[in-house]
Amino acid sequence: MKNLFDKKEFKNLKFKNRFIRSAMHEGLADPDGGVSQDIINIYEDLAKGGIATIITGFAYTIEGENPSHRMLAAYDDKFIPGFKKLVDTVHKYDANIILQLASGGSQAKFNCRKRKIYAPSTVEHKFTKIISIEMTESDIKHLVNAFGDAALRAKKAGFDGVQIHAAHGYLLSQFLSPYYNKRNDKYGGSIENRAEIIFETYRNMREKTGDNFPIFIKINCSDFMEDEGLTFDDSRFICQKLDKMGIDFIEISGNVGFNEVQPQIIRPDINKDKTKQCYFSKYAAIISEEVNVPVAVVGGNRNFEMMTELLNSSKIECFSLARTVLCESDIVKKWQDNTAYEPKCISCNQCWSLKQGNICVFNRA
Description:
Elements: E1 8-10, E2 13-15, E3 19-21, H1 37-48, E4 53-55, E5 59-60, E6 72-73, H2 80-91, E7 96-102, E8 118-119, E9 133-134, H3 137-157, E10 161-166, H4 171-175, H5 191-194, H6 196-209, E11 215-220, H7 232-245, E12 249-253, H8 262-265, H9 281-290, E13 295-297, H10 304-313, E14 318-321, H11 323-327, H12 331-337, E15 352-353, E16 357-358
Parallel strand pairs: 3-4, 3-14, 4-7, 5-6, 5-7, 7-10, 8-9, 10-11, 11-12, 12-13, 13-14
Antiparallel strand pairs: 1-2, 15-16
Helix pairs in contact: 1-2, 2-3, 3-6
């Protein structure tokens, strides 16, 4: 019987257990995107808390194109020393750390009136109401190269890998959506074309970092927008193609930020009804059967018994935690001591504060 505390090795990455801290934007980087002491302290607490692998908050790859306030930056070599300090801190506790790389597109909340905002097509964003500039093929090539260069910086800084953020309605996710992608060139139309930017980004990163540097991807199982968004079949196709291309790890999530069903996606009531937990697991279980690489799932993973059952009834390898570890960075150690322990997080979704950063309301004092 498989156990959540199994030690695993995927490619050249050793996991001391099957728990991952899924990427969350802290809003606590230095104003220029550098690693702050606050960021180091947060990740040190996570590493101390027993998590096997930490995926950082998203880092932007092109100067001036950060979609959120005080997010990490990876567009220049000047950030490497700060990254090294962060990596060395996490490694002291036998934990892995993966740098998530992203671009915002029109799902942006920061400095929106003072900069040009690019997206797959000139379409008004459903909620930000930003009308973006359609990217040219030259713009796309520039972005693909920027991701590759940032991945190489991550390798130089000592990160254990990188993750392509292709979920949650940000730029790469928008390319996958028929609502946001109205293009008529090789990047629009069929899912093969809409996903081309993902495949090119992966190839560029692989060419620059080599065969042995782990590359992850985070992708929606669905946008839950019916035909306007990425469908589950679309997601399965992309995962299967990336598996054949050599991707090392797939993390399954779902749309959490740009449509009217958001309250049903970021579940606020999962503590009251455990059947509502692990809410993307049925999709991840199917994908895990169709690919050879390890699959992790994020989304309402709260109950140790439920996760153990999923681990043994599917090929899902790892479970990603988000709000739970934001509330209790040592939740994994608490489960080690008592698998029946119930997390304190009440799923109130009040984590975010522009001034204080993404901090659980119970911990802000």
